[in-house]
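Submission sheet (multi-component)
Chains listed below:
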Amino acid sequence: MLRYALGRVVQAAMVLWATYTVSFVVLYRIPGDAVLERTRYEPTDITAEQMNTLRAEYGLDQSLVSQYLHRTADVLTGDLGRSLVNGRPVVELIGEALPWTLQIAGLALVVGLFFGAGLALLANYVQAGWLRQALLSLPPLGVAVPSFWLGLVLLQIFSFRITWFPATGHGGWRTMALPAITLAIPIGAQIAQVFAKSLEQALAETYIQTARAKGLGHGRILVGHATRNATLPALTIFGLVVGDLFAGSVIIETVFSRNGIGQLTAASISAQDMPVVQGLVLLAAIVYVLVNLAVDLTYPLLDPRVARLSRPVPSGA
Amino acid sequence: MIDSSPPRTRRHRPPARLLVAALAAVTLGLSACGSGSDGGSTDDANAGSDAAAVRGGTLTLAVGADPISLNPQGGGSGTDPMGANLVDTLTAQDPKTGKLRPWLAREWTVNDNATQFTFTLREGVTFSDGSALTAEVFKQNFDDIVKNGAKADSAIAQFLGYDRTTVVDRDTFRVEFKQPNVAFLQATSTKALGPLAPATLALPFEDRARKVIGTGPFVLDHYTPKSEVVLTKRAGYAWPAPTRTNTGEAYLDKVIFRIVPEASVRTGSLVSGQIAGIVDVPPQDTDTLRGRGFQLLTRANPGIPLSLYTNVSHRPLDEVRVRRAIARALDPEQVRAAALSSDFKVATSSLSATTPGWTDLSEQIKRDRDEAGRLLDEAGWRRGPDGIRQKDGRRLALTLGYAPFFAPSQTAVEEIQVQLREVGIGVDLQLLTNPSIPAGQTAGYYDLTFGNQSRADADLLRTTFSTEGTNAYRLADPELERLLQDQRAAADPTNRDKILAQLQRRLVDQSYLIPLIEFTTVIATAKDVHGVSQGADSRIAPLNDVFLTH
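Outcome: structure written.
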């Protein structure tokens, strides 16, 4: 188990380093820079000397390799640099945006899990074939609907027509409801899809027949026996779900005018604000890695066979 | 001059209210006479006021873009509507005439070749922290801008060749340049050159983004990035611009600017009454809002219209006949019909009609598709098998770069692509980020770029087309350069206008610039919002005239 965990941690560190490096190279190779963006209105009268002074202050005058080494050294000490657009520390910008995104993403995850898992259980519980089919056709619909459109439709109905919720703003649960629901629908739908399928497979296993033969009720078998085994595949997509929460926040935060990681990402990409983009890439990578690490480490707890299988096999080399 | 009596409040007796209403009606009549000359239009009685001014209340407006920084000198989006409420300026540019009028400077003089500007300040002006506005403070501000260089990106361009500011006495100072800079005077009417309090200048540049102390009619309460900016009334404000009707404190207690990036959400919020106005209505929503009885203000931005900028440094656009053919082939009215609204006027010159010094060239830039074909034939470009013209085995295919700074751009460039295709010119559209546009232009990646530029002074043509600096359009035209420099040294306005007319003609004649449509700012407000207007830059003017009648 320790070896397994250690292997996973080393792998995670490699993923982080690779993400950071690749994104650095890609981002810094794009033509133009944030200094040009800032001075685009009157390019003639801002002298090359003035632009170069600013570039030097940001370290943009150095070679790519030198910038990479400097920035990497800073990142290892926890300093993500400063925004090229407003000069504020990247850590501060992310720290300011993150709570808003976590709020919505957390709420969306809870809602999505509750309704997604609930739908999957219900679909596998009901006996009537048509009802089951009807329930199972909901998740593909939820995955297919674009969040952008869904958010606007919800706003149109619940904010502009019946004014239950404000369209914009940050304060209180009323501003959180619509964005969280918009974000929760595709996520809940994904969970429902995978969980319903794996429940169905688990219910076809022989141990279920045994349980049935013992005279256990349908509900008891579903919750007590099938669910634990069906959780494993559903857990695998958890990493993907978290990724979707991040990606979805770009759209949700734009539609609902909320500050957060999504809007920060969109704004810093369009301004080529490299340190901020890099900070966000790193944040996304860390979240991915941590979630997948947590998932990997949870497998053996749920299913001891995983740990046994991952023991090293002696090789000939 | 119309309403110099103090504004009445709701508590006044009926006769007084009647009197005010009568005065307001006069104001309305006069402003109606005046409209048309300022190039703007108002659907309703917004610019004047059909109701007695009411004190108090909170105005909530939606704006599409985050200001990033509220420091008018730089670091922000450069186009935010908030900063102009926090600072005042030396001069005020009258949107009706384009002329500069005294404001913080009660008078000024300019020497013959526009290298020295002497300003005398009005008395009694203070910053919201209580400190006094003096000549010394202006010197500190201007020196600070130069010291910060490109960081002060909204202001620094006006200080090219800055020598020094000399304080003559407590209220008089002289700004000296090593080279002519006639446009500096107009620049003193823009918020970028509005004075900040010494306490603000003492902060590192980055920290000023959310701590701006000015002399303006409002003070900054707070700015929450990507969410809102809240301003409150400056108590005791008594030095409004001569272009304002309210001579005292702002009527409103508080202004909330909500940052709402999605245009349809701004419109929905206004229609459902969650906000009282939008400072940047997209063209697709203007009809809806008009239909629902909202007040709309429209005015073309001064400066360079939405245009195609050509890269003349290599084939095929190094040849003037090909550039002219593009200009003749394009039908701006079709572009407007496809992407914009009737509020946007077809361009009549290389400057929009709201720019001081504009000259009407609409005859020269008329569409003529046959002429376009003839020009291309003459230049040796013949139709190939795929309909695209060819010459020496090379197809007439151009790259067109555009940035998504304005949503309808996409549709506009697609329409341009279709129109050019009809005369046998192929266009490859390339969507770019804002910073990669200038980088790509300088490197000569694109044959054409699509965009506009706003400034209420024609010196914008020099900063755009001069070969002195980055020379983004890779021009080499001594005649053009001479005109660009001459207008800069022309302190006499009549003489300068003459040079500017030649300049606009040269740009259009050589088709360095292919002007299409005047970029237009559209503001919408609810019926109970009064006194909203657009400044000489067409952006929403400071809100000290605005009041609410609920």
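Remark: Chain B has 15 helices and 24 strands.
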